[in-house]
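Students often ask why we bother encoding 3D structure as a string. The short answer is that it lets us treat folding as translation between two languages. Here is a chain of 480 residues written in the first language.
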Amino acid sequence: MIKKIIVYLICLLFIQKAFSQSLGLKAMLKKIASEKNVSIKIDLIYELYFSTVETDPALGLQNAKELLKQSRKNKDRVAEAMALFVMGANNRLIGKPVEGLQYNLKALSIAEPTGNLKAIAAIKNSIGNIYKDQTDYSQAITYYKESKLAAGESKENYKILSYALMNLGEVYLAMENIDSAMIYLENAKEKCREYDYYQFIGSICTGLGEALAKRNNKNLADSAQSLVNFRLGLNDALKTKKTRHMNWAYTGLAQYFFDNKICDSCLIYAKQAINVVQNTKFISMAIRPSKLIADLYENENSDSCIKYWKIYRLASDSLFCLNAIKRSQLLTFKEGVRKEELKLEELKLQHQRKLNIQYALIALSIVGLLTIYLVFSLNFITKEKYIKFLGMVSLLIVFEFLNLLIHPFLENVTNHSPVLMLIGLVMVAAFLIPLHHKIERKVLGKLVKKNRIVQLSRAIKQRAKSEETIKNLGARGNLV
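And here it is in the second language, the structure alphabet:
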């Protein structure tokens, strides 16, 4: 009986929690939909994203899907782009970088036509995160810098600007480019303090601590400042209860004490770093601290060394397998995108070629009809130079028309060889020019014949008119 009551109470607790979450989501969605200021709307969507990012990314993905439905129903393109961005960011967090990249690229294609720089900056920063996770640092830096550029110095975009600066610092730190890492992390810290924004100040401080420690461990000033930054990062992580940030800060402190040969403190912080991610989806973050402990115990305590070496291997294998799968998926996705882009480019070229052929036909028709009119019109005399000029224009149009028609064929036959393609076009010209001269002679012959007829007709009319005038004058003389 007691067991049934306990099960009932647990079920009731979960139902109540789910119901309260549902009410909270509906309220937030309503708030987002009613907000007229686009910049504030984006901030609200970020707030929705951050509410689950450290606890339940899968729930965050479901929330984003509801936001996507609402934004499409309201035909709100910026909100739609941001909903896709949140879906991409959460897919990245649950270990699906390919899906994350797909959602983010779709979000970018929707955001760019709107011209909203804040949304564009947010999405590009998220794409940079995916490439950073795959250690494709060059691509990550490209997107982070584009995000920074889009955010600019606008007061409305300071949060996204701080994210881009912080991420650039972390990437350069991973690349062992300490000077660049220090510059970007200091800029991020300064930007956060300027606007009193401390969402990621702990992560920034941890990064600065690691950069200072790597820059010169023998420099007492750097060493002391490094320790201060690690403490600040840890305090913020503990206060905000961010699992990943706690691990970063504990690991940074453990590394600091390991480098300074303070073994007891290194053990304390390394064990804490392992404990906060033990039995979580972030188990791969136990690699560094477990390796530090295994190295400390290597010559002292074989049992402990084996224990932490096993943890290190387990975390390493987990990360290696996960990264191998991710990279394989990402490479497959990139290749698919590349092929799709080539296909779209080819379709565009084919469409443009068809349009050019139609334009050439229209131009040739106009010039041809004008030439025919000038040659066969019986109203006025046409000069030969006009016909020659129109004939030359017609020749050029015909040549261009044939070039458009046979160009794909020539590319396939000659395998894009410029020399062979040039020979093919010269052969076409060698055929057209004699044909043009032959037609021109015939046209000019008809023109001369037409001009004679027009001149003779005018002479006959003029003579008849003169005779009529003389006759009228003679009649008037007889009357007088």
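Translate back mentally: The two ends are 149 Å apart (CA to CA). Keep this in mind for the problem set.
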